[in-house]
Amino acid sequence: MPVFALVDCNNFYVSCEKLFRPDLKHTPVVVLSNNDGCVVARSKEAKALGIKMGVPVFKIRHEIERHGIVCFSSNYSFYADLSQRVMTILEELAPRVEVYSIDEAFLDLTGVEACTSLEAFGQQVRGTVDQWTGIQVCVGIAPTKTLAKLANHGAKSYPATQGVVDLTAKERQRKLMALLPVNEVWGIGGRLKARLELMGIKTALDLADADPHMIRKRFSVVVEKTVRELNGIACLGLEETPAIKKEIVCSRSFGERITDFHAMREAISEYATRGAEKLRGEGRIAKQLTVFIRTSPFNNQEPQYSNAATLEMVTPTDDTRSLIEAAHRGLETIWKDGFRYARGGILLSDFYDPNCYQPELFDDVKDKPKSKELMQALDHINQKGLGKVFFAAQGIQKGWSMKRDHLSPAYTTRWSDVPRVK
């Protein structure tokens, strides 16, 4: 019988922020979305105060001041670095690992019970991750990935479990499923929940006891697989290799409205540069680039405008210079004066393997001289902390960049930000 474990970091963004701030151990903390707009992560203390996920910051200003809630801007590079450290530890502890998200991973524990109990192994995972990174995790263990998700929910919800729940026993599975509403099942969202409740399926156990064939007729094969997974039949395997992306989008809401073409040109150049870096990270080249801009759809007092332009390169490329040039051409075709733009970005698509692309007979396949070597050098400098090299088209002042007024230091990725003990 296969055995899966889901390891999930507790309040991950907030845990990262508290890691180098021991003075905030018992303080309510929230992490904010892009431009410091909404709450996207909360500490247990903030949850106890009734702070809701996704609430706009301006609506809770009074609570922030009254309760001394500490706010942090999203520090994605910091979170990504700590996530990588956690996943590296998991890969050392388990024979096979699927990184599911920045703070979650599935482990294949098949055969582990021959050496030690699954619960003891779960506690070993928790202790090792906590000791080596300071991040606390919960572990859910079960014969299917869907049940492992429920087990992890139980590990987080019930302190008596000490952060580990083993659901390999049938009776324990049914006991926990009877306690959980159906929308706690992996993949069952609000719409499905409403439809299932009309059929009398209100708990996870109700769904597990439903006829799979009937569920497939009324819903889909995906929901049928969920029913079978709840009954201990593994329909979802471990995916150790991430799926190759079919598109790459780089976009942000601007920190302040853009009304000047040159400022927008800088912003689009920035996004094209980031897109090119991601493209090279995927080991792909792109033939299509779409550039888009729009005003704020939430401000009815201002004129509205949005537009996009798609350009096709003669030959696919991952060269930042070529992608910036294409983005500039696209922007020139859609730009209109007289609007206050709130967002812009680029989308890369139509990907190819650099070693397998077959050009057309009359294509001009000449690439920029030393393109590959130059891009490798840029990535090496920028990603290894050796400095920062950027294109002049990206600008210097960047008044349009995302607001991050509460940004924490880059404790683990920048030498100047490494904490000093006096």
Mean pLDDT: 91
- Structural Rg: 25 Å
As laid out across the biggest beta sheet, the strand order is 5-6-1-7-8
Which architecture of the domain at 247-394 does the CATH hierarchy give at level 2?
2-Layer Sandwich
Shape: globular
Content-based structural category: alpha+beta
- The strand count comes to 12
- Number of contiguous helices: 14
Distance between the termini: 54 Å
Q: Which SSEs are present, and which pair or pack?
A:
Blueprint lengths: L3 E6 L2 H8 L9 E4 L6 E4 L1 H5 L12 H7 L2 E4 L2 H18 L2 E6 L2 E5 L9 H16 L3 E6 L2 H13 L6 E3 L3 H10 L10 H9 L5 H5 L3 H7 L2 H10 L16 E12 L2 H22 L2 E11 L10 E12 L2 H15 L6 E12 L18 H13 L39
Parallel strand pairs: 2-4, 7-8
Antiparallel strand pairs: 1-6, 1-7, 2-3, 5-6, 9-12, 10-11, 10-12
